[in-house]
């Protein structure tokens, strides 16, 4: 599938960059006139993935979070959020609703569940001590005929 | 900067803006100062002014619910917009916290 | 000087990404509560540098533009806009007001002049066939004591 | 989508939103269709609704100025906000184009 536009954002694992990532993904979607509904769904999913990278991946230590995004000709949006943090031992378990390894910090364990509920698909690739990649897809309509190809 | 009102043993908190992990930490810090007062018996979150919330908001509300319950108090929520409510429903929060009309 | 926050955005040389770059730099500045004046100045300078990378650097061919930004502890904002495009033969001449190599495309030749006018300093490093780096600085007040360090 | 009015040989264009290189290209395309009509003798840009403009706006206005001048027509500008006007002044555009009060 042909990619119409793509971007990559690297930022520090600081809490104020959760809002940065949300604004950047909104701005990236803007040229294809997403609905407010779609904008909100994607911002929520990105917020969850980026917060996880900061809170769990780097456990509030200093590190870089990477968000990549692609807009495809057929109107699908792909998003990848990566960290080089501690990784997840058991991904299937981590994705269960209410499962959290941070009871004390008032995490609800609902992050992955929210991502799954607001996006069409969510893939997680993770390796202990090596980091985590969260890949999400969502079809945006109408299609991308609005954009000129450069 | 929390927008709240304290009346007859109840603290009403009107949440606004974007409730993410960062903001949840700020709210928690301010709120726990407020409800440290033993005369506070009830905590009400008004979600109507929220522009954005992710699951960090759920964690923050569950945390306050536990605090209030431990001392025999109660927590209630005045619902917010569509996406906020979808997250509230997903989390089953209304099974333990009162939803006000 | 200690860096409090930093980011890097890579994006395709497409015209709709001019708006993306402006929104991203605004979002990056937001946590330090810039004035509307400062926001507008920086957005304008970024718009000029990014447009130049797309229009001159890549001459509307496909390529990647990189914007990096740093917030320093003393309240200074650093921005770098880079392309791997055609480069500039004579930087001093290019910076002259009204100088443009694209008369036919209705460029005004005022891009560098606008950057200089809205930022505290502008540096240009360029090599023919190798690309261009534009470095800009602007002091934002009040200082960054508002931000927690992570 | 250009917001304009055509009256007595004058085309009034109310620019809004963000006038960058991308938008300048769109405006140029639409406008040159409009002013191709030989009865148009005057072109007025109203910059008051502009939220953003960079030097691409200057290039676009100079281009239209040349077109109109070539056929004995004129161009005028109703000024915009502070930053837009700073760019207008920097470029010296008001030395060749009439600034309306
Ligand atoms: N990027 C990550 N790096 C390391 N661990 C993660 C990451 N994302 C998620 N996890 C693990 O998965 C668990 C569940 O995540 P999630 O469903 O988002 O809930 P929560 O963030 O509330 O704990 C986390 O508690 C953590 O153990
Ligand atoms: N990133 C770049 N790559 C190659 N050439 C550039 C770049 N930026 C500027 N230039 C050169 O410098 C000239 C002046 O740039 P500028 O002052 O921005 O005016 P304008 O964009 O209107 O031409 C351009 O016409 C071009 O020749």
Describe this structure in words.
The complex is a heterotetramer, with 2 copies of chain A (about 150 residues) and 2 copies of chain B (about 100 residues). With about 150 residues, chain A is α+β, with helices and mostly antiparallel strands. In chain A, about 30% of the residues lie in helices and about 30% in strands. Chain A has a 5-stranded antiparallel β-sheet, with helices on one face. The longest helix of chain A has 22 residues, at about 35-55. Chain A is globular, with a radius of gyration of 15 Å. Chain B has one domain (about 1-100): Transcription Regulator spoIIAA, CATH 3.30.750. Chain B is built from 3 helices and 5 strands. In chain B, helix 1 (about 20-35) runs parallel beside helix 2 (about 55-70). The termini of chain B are far apart. In chain B, about 40% of the residues are buried. The model of chain B has no long low-confidence stretch (mean pLDDT about 95). Chains in contact: A-B, A-C, C-D. The interface of A and B includes residues 19, 114 and 117 of A.
What is the ordering of alpha helices and beta strands of chain B?
A: EEHEHEHE
CATH topology of chain B, anyone? Answer: Transcription Regulator spoIIAA
How many extended strands of chain A? 5
Give the strand order, joined by hyphens, for the main sheet of chain A.
Answer: 1-2-3-5-4
What is the averaged pLDDT score of chain B?
Answer: 95
* Strand-pairing-aware structural class of chain B: alpha/beta
Give the overall form of chain B: globular
Q: If helices are DSSP runs of H or I spanning 4 or more residues, what is the number of helices of chain A?
A: 4
Distance between the termini of chain A: 16 Å
CATH architecture of chain A: 2-Layer Sandwich
Radius of gyration of chain A: 15 Å
Order of helices and strands of chain A: EHHEEHHEE
Low-confidence stretches of chain A: none
The coarse overall form of chain A would be: globular
Low-confidence stretches of chain B: none
Strand content of chain B: 25-35%
């Amino acid at each position: 599938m042909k990619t119409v536009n793509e971007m990559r954002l690297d930022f520090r694992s600081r809490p104020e960059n959760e809002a940065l990532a949300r604004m950047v993904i909104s701005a990236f979607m803007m040229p294809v006139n997403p609905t407010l509904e779609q904008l909100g769904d994607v911002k929520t999913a990105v917020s969850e993935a980026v917060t996880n990278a900061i809170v769990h991946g780097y456990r509030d230590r200093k590190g870089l979070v990477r968000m990549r995004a692609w807009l495809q000709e057929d109107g699908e949006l792909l998003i990848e959020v990566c960290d080089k943090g501690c990784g997840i031992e058991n991904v299937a378990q981590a994705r269960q609703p209410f499962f959290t390894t941070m009871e004390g910090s008032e995490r609800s364990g609902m992050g992955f569940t929210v991502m799954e509920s607001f996006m069409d698909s969510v893939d997680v690739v993770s390796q202990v001590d090596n980091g985590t990649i969260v890949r999400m897809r969502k079809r945006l309509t109408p299609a991308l005929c609005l954009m000129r190809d450069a | 900067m929390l927008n709240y009102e304290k009346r007859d043993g109840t603290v009403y908190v009107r949440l606004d803006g974007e409730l993410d992990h960062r903001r949840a930490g700020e709210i928690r810090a301010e709120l726990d100062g407020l409800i440290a007062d033993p005369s506070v018996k009830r905590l009400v979150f008004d979600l109507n002014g929220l522009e954005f919330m992710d699951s960090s908001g759920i964690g923050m509300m569950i945390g306050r619910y536990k605090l209030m319950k431990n001392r025999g108090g109660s927590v209630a929520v005045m619902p917010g917009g569509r996406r906020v409510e979808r997250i509230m429903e997903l989390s089953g929060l209304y099974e333990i916290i009162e939803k006000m009309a």
